[in-house]
Amino acid sequence: MTATVAAALKKIAVALLTNPKVLKTVVGIIFGIIVMIVMPIAAFFAVLSGDIEIDTDEFYEMVMERIDEDKLDKIDDMNDILNALDDAMDDAHFDDEMIDEARLLLIVFLSDIADDEDFIDDLISCFEDDPDYEELIENVNDTFGTDIDPDEFERMMERLGA
């Protein structure tokens, strides 16, 4: 791990541990992810053993009670934006790899500005002329005023298998 990445991770950890609101949000997201991973595994083993009965309605109610309305609204909004982005990218005849790149950009780097009126059109315009990663990130940085590192984006895409 490079010193830059280690320093960035340290800054993130300090920011998370010192801000109770962010920490609460991160813990909620982690809890949700763990529940989504553990429950199907538990259900699978329960079906195989035949000994355990899972009341899915009660479990669903329990999970929904623990997630506040504001977080659910944010999740729904992000899902709507992702669906709109997918539809717009399909309509513009972009391939699956470019759609994955756009999703990654949205989720990791641009989620804070995703509700801007022309966001999807502006993001799609960054993909014109079939850019490589460096050109794409340069287009995104110019369009949205961000400071995304092309190498970091490329590493993330490689980890996703793209």
Can you walk me through this structure?
The chain has helices at 3-18, 20-49, 56-66, 69-91, 96-109, 119-125, 133-144, 150-159. It is mainly α and 162 residues long. The protein has eight helices and no strands. The chain folds into two domains: 1-67, no CATH class; 68-162, no CATH class.
Throw out a few tags for this protein.
162 residues; mainly alpha; 2 domains; globular
Number of strands: 0
**Helical residue percent band:** over 70%
Main sheet characteristics: none
Question: What is the CA-atom radius of gyration, in angstroms?
Answer: 19 Å
Instruction: Report the mean per-residue pLDDT as an integer.
Output: 82
Write the layout of secondary structure elements.
Blueprint: H1 3-18, H2 20-49, H3 56-66, H4 69-91, H5 96-109, H6 119-125, H7 133-144, H8 150-159
Helix pairs in contact: 1-2, 4-5, 7-8
Task: Please sum up the structure shown.
With 162 residues, the chain is mostly helical.
